[in-house]
Specification:
This protein is mainly alpha-helical. The chain has eleven helices and six strands. The longest helix is centred in the middle third of the chain and has 27 residues. The N and C termini lie far apart (100 Å).
Length: 307
């Protein structure tokens, strides 16, 4: 089973979609898919669907949604296991049952498992964009800690490329999914922050300016992104714009949150004002020395006696 939630919800069994269109079953599948291979309690699913005041029929209705999901899964299993012979053609004697067919392979109940107290969606070793993102981001953080900025930037860029929009963008989210969406967005923002930091350490400040301009307008109180934006501007020779960015951030923080910029931001502003050497762009790596030209062949001079 392949699962994508970092954008629109897409769940496929053997390459065939098992994602329902009805909002409530879609919510159930979304929560199960996010926690694939782990049991999701009935209480969590009930809260997701109905909040703190579920109806008396909540348990029965949830079972109905699970049955609807199993029907979609069973249809995918049957299509995947359909023989290549024409309809109505009997199978050859001794031919084993195809996977998903009665008596062989996985059934829908093996994929969406009822457990004491909840349900479990079995991925069967398939892909999950969330797990891939977490693996790549973790590798990027470790590379950053080891001083490998190029490797960190590469791994984190690959992790962020898995996102096609807000997590569960096309799912009507209840309390549980709303909490998970916030968690995932924070994970994405953390990876983005570290990737930009790695790029800055590599001297890519000019390439970052367009991206950071968009980000600081979207995250108007995010101090780390603003610090990176100010630094990229300053290193690009746009010192006045860097100081203007600080003033805009300070105005927003004071008016909206009643807070002054952090000590880190104030130090950065002072360093820009004094053009501190600690803010200089990293020096470009020295070019490799050119290979020495081969020595010309020795010229032998023959002396011819005269007279």
């Amino acid at each position: 089973m392949d699962i994508e939630v970092l954008g629109a919800l897409a769940v496929r069994e053997n390459g065939l979609s098992v994602t329902p269109t009805a909002p409530k079953p879609r919510q159930v599948l979304a929560l199960l898919a996010l926690h694939a291979d782990r049991m999701v309690p009935v209480s969590a699913l009930t809260e997701e669907l109905w909040g703190a005041a579920p109806p008396r029929s909540a348990r029965t209705t949830l079972q109905t949604y699970v049955l609807q999901l199993r029907e979609l899964i069973a249809a995918a299993l049957e299509r995947d296991s359909a023989p290549d012979t024409a309809p109505g053609t009997p199978a050859a004697p001794g031919t084993p049952a195809a996977p998903g067919a009665p008596g062989g392979g996985r059934s829908a109940k093996d994929v969406l498992v009822t457990m004491p107290g909840g349900y479990l969606l079995c991925s069967g070793g398939g892909t999950s964009d969330v797990r891939t993102f977490e693996r790549l981001a973790g590798a990027g953080y470790r590379a950053m800690d080891a001083g490998d900025c190029a490797g960190a930037a590469r791994q984190l860029r690959e992790a962020l490329a898995l996102w096609s929009g807000t997590a569960f963008a096309d799912v009507q989210a209840g309390p549980q999914l709303q909490m998970e969406i916030k968690r995932l967005d924070e994970s994405r923002l953390c990876a983005l922050d570290r990737r930009i930091e790695a790029d800055l350490r590599l001297g890519r400040h000019r390439e970052l300016l367009a991206e950071l301009t968009v980000l600081v307008n979207g995250y108007r109180t995010h101090e780390s992104l603003h610090a990176q934006y100010m630094l990229a501007l300053h290193r690009s020779g746009r010192r006045g714009e860097a100081l203007d960015a600080y003033q805009r951030l300070r105005t927003t923080l004071v008016h909206e949150l009643g807070l002054e910029p952090s000590a880190r931001l104030r130090r950065l502003q002072r360093s820009i004002l004094t053009a501190g050497h600690d803010l200089a762009a990293p020096a470009a790596p020295a070019p490799a020395p050119a290979a020495a030209a081969p020595a010309p062949p020795a010229v032998k001079v023959r002396l011819v006696p005269t007279g």
